[in-house]
Amino acid sequence: MATTLHAFPAPLLTGSGSTAGPVADSSAGNVLVSAVADPAVDEQTATEAQERTAADVPWQVVVWDDPVNLMSWVTWVFRTYFGYPQLKAHALMMEVHTAGRAVVASGTLEQAEKHVAALHGYGLWATYERATGPGGSGANDDGHGGRF
Question: Domain named Adaptor protein ClpS core: which ranges (predicted)?
Fold first, then answer.
């Protein structure tokens, strides 16, 4: 068990009359209070830290290859919607065409959902997924890959 010592100004604890409580440190004018660390609190703090880390993992927007849209249209959408320069838009379009998919953006879940909805408005096949990393599974939590 870990013990933590906290120093408090002496006037806060004067008049308690307890001999088992605070110990006076007359050289600093403070009273030292000993507290025993609670393992349940330490475990809860560790769990909260893991949940925050998992929540911090960004979401990715994935555009999938489809037999309908022209490559020039996909490039134009990437330039128009995301504001990507021609070379980046073309490279992403070629990744979609050759690999079957490309991650075109990442961010919060709300941002990913907004991007996917906008890309659907342009007629592209797009989904969102949790980015791989600590706590990231690579697929979104609802099991349908962000498809509407």
Answer: 58-127
Q: Kindly report, residue by residue over 85-114, the tens digit of the pLDDT.
A: 999 999 999 999 999 999 999 999 999 999
Assigned token pair, 84: 């990507």
pTM over 0.70: no
Q: How far apart are CA 58 and CA 34, in angstroms?
A: 42
62 and 122, same structural domain? yes
Q: How is residue 14 annotated by DSSP?
A: T
- Check if the beta carbon of residue 6 is closer than 8 Å to that of residue 37: no
Considering the domain boundaries, does residue 64 fall inside one? Answer: yes
Residue 139 exposed, middle or buried by CB count within 10 Å (0-12, 13-18, 19+): middle
Domain shared by 64 and 112, yes or no: yes
Amino acid at 127: T
Q: How far apart are CA 69 and CA 88, in angstroms?
A: 18
The predicted-structure confidence for 15-31, as pLDDT tens digits, reads as follows: 555 455 555 555 555 55
DSSP per residue, 24-44 = EETTTTEEEEEEEPPHHHHHH
